[in-house]
Design goal:
The complex is a heterodimer of chains A (167) and B (217). By secondary structure, chain A is mainly beta. Chain A has one domain: Sandwich (Immunoglobulin-like). Helix content of chain A is 12%, strand content 44%. Chain A contains two helices and twelve strands, in the order H-H-E-E-E-E-E-E-E-E-E-E-E-E. In chain A, the strands form three sheets. Chain A has a four-stranded antiparallel β-sheet, with no helix packed on it. Chain A has a four-stranded mixed β-sheet with strand order 2-12-10-5, with no helix packed on it. Chain A is elongated and about 55 Å long. Chain B folds into two domains: 42 residues; 162 residues, 3-Layer(aba) Sandwich (Glutaredoxin), CATH 3.40.30.10. Chain B is 42% helix and 17% strand. In chain B, helix 2 crosses helix 5. The longest helix of chain B has 41 residues. Classes of the chains: A mainly beta (167), B alpha/beta (217). At the A-B interface, helix 1 of A face helix 1 and helix 2 of B.
Chain lengths: 167, 217
């Protein structure tokens, strides 16, 4: 019996070394997601009437402590937040509207006169969606450039995936 | 015999429960660690925890301890705003600050006037700054490249940059640990060794302290 117990104890030790349920990060398929400054929140699915323009709101969240440039930055050298919809998906987005940016000044000495137009927290992009009958997997892309009060990251693009059910 | 079987079965049950508990505790612990790491990764700038960088150490004041510190600065050749080839080797025997920046980086623009002042102040003692732009360039489109270069030059002029600005920093990024945030600076001493590094906006005093370190003062 002692050998049997030893085997079990060895298994216990092994359990201490390995996650018996697998790696959450590896298995979630979202290994890179936590490093994103911006997350696409919802909707994952929308229902529209075929051939009719339907209002749709795409919701995003900017990581706390960070900001991204708005769609209309105050200066030309700032990189605007943009969204790109594929043109061949049987789904068309029109009248795309970004929210107005919030006026922001870096809270550090030397930045007094440099006003930025940014998004922070949650924001939504609105538009009118028109789709042909059927199911469509829309894979749009949001491009942004994020900073905090001390540093900036290079521009980055995240996928915006929406399953469109058009009847 | 029956009692013995009962005892073995009981022991097996206890061990199984302990095994499950240990596995569960380990899983929770790993989950927590993963969340902590993800949190740090999400806050690269807020928490001063960029990939490959840690706070403190001998890297200098107010900056991160970079794994690059203590290593020889890798040589490179880039093109400046006027089209001239510039190599780090051209600055042999001088203390050099490599300042990685971009026109879209607001914090970079705050420190740039300080850098211009410091470069002027310490140049007579053998100090030089090389601004390395990380703005995207259409290298295969001459017309676009010309416009993009002109835009960088315009911003550099507006910021009062009085030191060389080199283009296409991405080309040398790997040699310097693929910095993921800007501004990033490496301070290279007269022997070509990186003696300090900063990531993110720091103070003028910190910059000056690192310049002195590069000068060996």
């Amino acid at each position: 019996m002692s050998g049997w117990v030893s085997t079990l104890l060895a298994l216990m030790l092994l359990a201490g070394q390995q996650n018996p349920f697998g790696s959450l990060l590896q298995n979630s398929g979202k290994k890179d997601a936590p490093t994103e400054a911006v997350r696409y929140l919802y909707p994952e699915q929308v229902a529209v009437t075929a051939g009719q323009a339907t209002p749709v709101e795409l919701h995003f969240s900017v990581k706390q402590g960070l900001h991204i440039n708005s769609h209309v930055p105050r200066t030309k050298d700032m990189i605007p937040t943009t969204i790109l919809f594929p043109s061949d998906a049987g789904v068309r987005m029109s009248e795309v509207e970004f929210p107005a940016g919030k006026d922001f000044v870096l809270p550090v000495p030397g930045a007094a006169g440099d006003h930025l137009s940014v998004y922070s927290g949650d924001f939504a992009v609105r538009g009118m969606m028109t789709a042909t009958r059927g199911e469509h997997l829309v894979q749009a892309k949001l491009r942004y450039q994020a900073c905090d009060n001390r540093a900036c990251m290079p521009p980055h693009t995240i996928p915006v995936v929406v399953n469109v059910e058009s009847r | 015999m029956r009692d013995k079987n009962f005892l073995v079965a009981g022991l097996a049950m206890v061990v199984f429960v302990m095994l499950a508990a240990a596995g569960w505790a380990n899983w929770m612990n790993r989950k927590h660690m993963a969340e902590m790491q993800a949190q740090r990764a999400m806050d690269p700038m807020v928490m001063g925890n960029m990939p490959g960088m840690q706070m403190g150490g001998d890297a200098g004041t107010g900056e991160m301890a970079s794994p690059m510190v203590g290593k020889q600065a890798a040589d490179f050749t880039l093109t400046d705003l006027s089209g001239k080839k510039v190599s780090l080797a051209d600055y042999k025997g001088k203390a050099v600050q490599l300042n990685f920046w971009a026109t879209w980086c607001a914090p970079c623009k705050i420190e740039t006037p300080w850098l211009a002042e410091l470069e002027k102040q310490y140049k007579p003692r053998g100090f030089e700054i090389l601004g390395v732009s990380f703005d995207d360039l259409d290298l295969n489109d001459a017309a676009k490249l010309k416009t993009e270069t002109a835009d960088i030059a315009k911003t550099a002029k507006q910021l009062g940059i009085n030191y060389p600005v080199l283009l296409d920093g991405d080309a040398i990024s790997k040699k310097y640990g693929d910095p993921e945030v800007f501004p990033t600076s490496f301070f290279v001493d007269r022997q070509g060794k990186i003696v300090a590094a900063t990531m993110g906006l720091t103070s003028k005093d910190d910059l000056e302290s690192n310049i002195k370190k590069a000068l060996g003062e």
